[in-house]
Design a protein that fits this description.
globular, six-stranded antiparallel beta sheet, six-stranded mixed beta sheet, 8 helices, 351 residues, 19 strands, Gyrase A, domain 2, alpha+beta, Elongation Factor Tu (Ef-tu), domain 3
């Protein structure tokens, strides 16, 4: 039996009565008080997630940028020190080995935050392709990562305003952090990277400031309302970035791995596309359910904000336009759904 890894905050989750489940080789909190309450707290106020299971890889050296520019899909030259970028690690077929965020720490130093389930594979992928003058290190065990998300998150942490996808070193209630203006919920927020030994102090401080502890279940419903793909489900090494709707994260005029194949797919048009949808009848779509016409649901849930079943799924390209009607087999019953624009949920503007 596999021994599950634990984050530096495991004791805090146990003390709070979290329901713990296996996830990507880790024992993680799936919920505390309930998915709906946690989800709505992030949409209306502020929630905090322990995402310390994510991997951190450092790439350093005079040829670090050259190495990453040849492996990552986005154009690294677009960001300077103190800035970050969403990007893809792609294979020769244009498939998505992982999706990640790269942070430019300095002229010759970068930090990659990668998905927990792909940490070892990503590290091996980079190490096998190292250039002389570049050094790749897995520093994941040195850090803890907290995601503080919601419309009140910046105010509760008493942080100043800053652009999305930037970061800065700051001190929060005595704890030194890298404050990253990023997140996976569709809300304003930050991700706080700190030394592993400071994780409990930072977690306690964030809760004291009024953030509600949230688990993986709410993280999943939030990201799905925002149409953020989940690696291993909506995107995989077998799915290409164009079909997945991630062409915007690919600088196709550069020479990263798989760029030529992605240019071909874009020019010809993909046979299928990843489409967001909302059920028009009762039911909850789940991964693997068939979509009429040869499609398949890759992620599905009940939306706490819309009170309807929602999801993502690959469908024939001609079915993927917003407004298209779909028929989904939900537990043996055909259920009508409609393709909608991204994101599936967006807060109404106030006057």
């Amino acid at each position: 039996m596999q021994t599950l890894l634990r984050t530096p905050l495991h004791a805090r989750h146990v003390a709070l009565g979290a329901r713990l489940v296996p996830f990507a080789g880790w024992e993680m909190p799936v919920q505390y008080d309930g998915v709906i309450a946690e989800h709505r707290a992030v949409r209306a106020d502020c929630g905090v997630f322990d995402v310390s299971h994510m991997g951190e890889l450092e790439v350093e050296g005079p040829r670090a940028a050259e190495l990453l520019q040849g492996l990552l899909s986005n154009d690294l030259e677009r960001i300077g020190p103190g800035e970050a970028q969403y990007t893809l690690l792609t294979n020769e077929r244009g498939g998505i080995v992982d999706d990640l965020i790269v942070y430019r720490l300095g002229t010759f130093r970068y930090l990659l935050i990668v998905n927990a389930s792909n940490r070892a594979e990503d590290f091996a992928w980079l190490r096998e392709r190292e250039l002389t003058g570049s050094d790749v290190r897995d520093v994941s065990d040195d850090y803890a990562l907290l995601a503080v998300q919601g419309p009140s998150s910046i105010e509760r942490l008493e942080l100043g305003q800053a652009r999305a996808f930037t970061f800065a070193e700051e001190r929060i209630d005595g704890v030194d952090c890298m404050v990253c203006r990023t997140g996976y919920t569709g809300e304003i927020g930050v991700e706080l990277l700190c030394a592993a030994e400071d994780a409990e102090a930072l977690w306690d401080a964030v809760l004291e400031r009024g953030a509600l502890p949230c688990g993986l279940a709410a993280r999943d419903t939030l990201r799905l309302e925002a149409c953020y793909p989940l690696h291993g489900h909506d995107i995989t090494p077998e799915t290409d970035a164009i079909a997945a709707g991630l062409g915007w994260a690919c600088a196709l005029d550069t020479a990263f791995t798989g760029a030529a194949e992605l240019r071909r797919i874009k020019a010809e048009g993909p046979d299928r596309r990843l489409a967001p949808f909302v059920l028009e009848e009762r039911g909850v779509p789940r991964e693997g359910m068939a979509i009429e016409g040869g499609g398949r649901v890759t992620s599905g849930t009940h939306s706490p904000m819309l009170d309807r079943g929602i999801g993502l799924g690959y469908v024939a390209a001609e079915q993927a336009a917003p407004g298209s009607e779909l028929s989904i087999d939900v537990r043996g019953r055909s259920r009508r759904a409609r393709v909608v624009p991204k994101p599936i949920y967006k807060r109404a503007r106030t006057a």
